[in-house]
Amino acid sequence: MAKIEQEYDVIVIGGGINGLTAGCYLQKAGLKVLILERRDEVGCFCSTQELLHPGAMVSVHANGLFPAIGPVPLDLDLDRFGFELLMPGPIVYFAPFKDGTALAWHWYNPKVTYDVWRRVSEKDAETFHTIAKTIGPILQSDIAPEMMNTMFYEPMTDESFLNLHNMLDMFSSMVPAFPKDSLYLTGVELLNEMWEDERSKVFLSGWPITLAVDITSRIAGSTIILMMTALVAGAGIACVGTCRGGSHNLTHALARCFLHHGGRILAGCPVARITVDNGEAKGVALSRDAIYPEAEFRARKAVISNLSPYPTFVELVGEDKLPAFAARGARNFDYRGSPLFTTWWVLNERPKWKCIDRFPEIDRGFSFNFGADTMADIFRMDEHVMVLDTPPDPPVNMGYCIHTFCDADPTQAPPGQYNVLTWANVPTTIKPLGGPEKWDDIREEYGDKVEDSLSELMPNLKSAKIARYCDTPWDTWRRNPSSRGHMSSGYYGERQWWSWRPFAGCGAPRTPIAKLYISNSIGSISVSSLGGGYTCAKVVAEDLGVREQDWWASRPGDYTKLFLKRMGEQVVLID
Q1: pLDDT, tens digit, 9 for 90 and up, residues 462-509
Q2: Residue 461: Cβ within 10 Å count
Q3: Residues near 494 by beta carbon (within 8 Å), at least 6 away in sequence
Q4: With respect to CATH, is domain 7-49+247-334+486-559 assigned 3.50.50.60?
């Protein structure tokens, strides 16, 4: 320890992508920043490994990446540090159904989306056409960056919610297909009001459910369903892809950026305690298992925790140092909603979809949901995850299920081979079966059920299979104890929504402890949008008087436009 500096302006606990993002901004702004990471490398939830078959690269957790929608890649010049976004195909999301039909979302040409929809439901296709015709031009104006900024890159306050509410209310008044009382309905009621076919409702539910949003709620559900509808209809906004070489490409780019600007990363350094004196965060102490056992580091200006609420406040700060409301809120933070059972396959031939003859567009689709053909399937899944605490049988896969084609990125699979992964929504604790550790006993059995379900839609799955690996919520918990088995940052329902996130009165990213900030579980419903890290850095920089930087000026959507230009494509508006 004699050669390791022990005093910094800012100390970040946790080297996940949002901890790295916060560290990058603050280090580049001229502060002296230390990042402490429990594991032997940064990027726990955004890592890529040669896990199940030689040459097949598996992104263990994050797969659909959102950083391009926001300001981070341009502000931090991530391309310079190796960030390389890929879109394996222009169909960013699709949903195949057992009857041989499918719905698909083309991310910059709504005419393709409309054409696919017409083959499923003429009435719903016309509803989509009405929305796209009206909302497309609106979302090509300055409204879209403002909306995305409010949604992902600003602290979630009562004032910011009112701003978002006003923007969405404007959509409701301008778009004939939107009910005028949209924001006063639950997400499910909104779907029922707008769409006739069950497949349309399932299709538009997919992403919100993946992100752990409770679509039965009146605030979170209606807001996100309305947002999802607007994004599908307003082309060229939601740039979601992967990275060359896998998701860890994003982690590496952030780490290189941080180190380039003079930051310090210490891996193998789990934190045991946040030092609090007179209600103010002063630094941290490492655990006895760290590379530097029980070493203490001082933070002159701020401590940022990139851990989730329970470990941050209950384990590291201690309930005795918290106001009663904060101790109760952190202790009762809800991690249900979207724990995932992940299954990977390596195939020796291209996935062949049952519906490919009628819907050739999905042959190069990026992410898909399956296992739900009606809303009843979704309600059954929700009951198992939120109430019964048992895995849904048959499985319902409402996560990003991605197949990576080696012609899009040959680094992720050997020549002539293909990776496929699925995320099935399941509970973590499974108490009726004996507790979360019982996932070790049932993983292969449940993997067989997921495989059987996908085989109904991808008939060559079993015959082309070379290898398969199953990963459970219990594996997620052990790999990243801060997650407590959840895919991102906890349940999104009314009691953990907007200014009540992570709990009422916290004021995130600020906290009830002076000079302690959080970059996890603070609002952004997609961790890989980097919104948590960006928002935290912005608030810390404002508090410390270093926010005004010439380079800190990009807006949401700027990188997306640049990426489209590189692809030689442009946004198409429907007429």
Answers
A1: 999 999 999 999 999 999 999 999 887 788 888 898 999 999 999 999
A2: 20
A3: 214, 217, 218, 219, 220, 500
A4: yes
